[in-house]
Amino acid sequence: MAAFVYLLRCADGTLYCGWSTDPERRLLQHQAGTASRYTRTRRPVELVYTREFATRSEAMREELRIKGLPARDKRRLWRRTVDVLPAAAAPANVSESCRSSRSTPPTTP
Predict the structure, then answer these.
(1) Any residues with CB less than 8 A from the CB of 45 and at least 6 apart, and which?
(2) Domain boundaries, the chain
(3) CATH number attached to the domain at 3-98
(4) pLDDT of residue 79
């Protein structure tokens, strides 16, 4: 069964990483305040990145890897997807919200 890693951008600008077999359903749970204590107080949240994996264990490993990244690298992860891929070339495992164009490129520290 496929599983997904996802990143949410919270109202306070922080990022939340998780995994799910149904990221759209999980997003609704986060928006309702029933998915996690962290996002409950930081609503509304926006789904900014998803990546599909063949198994739950692969998704869980990627979630742990992403959670270990500094915040700037997490932002680069989804911003790179937005900036580099035109909508027509974006792979199916990248969420629609990641395909939107940005008016300015991200700054490089």
Answers:
(1) 8, 9, 10, 11, 16, 27, 30, 31, 39
(2) 3-98
(3) 3.40.1440
(4) 80
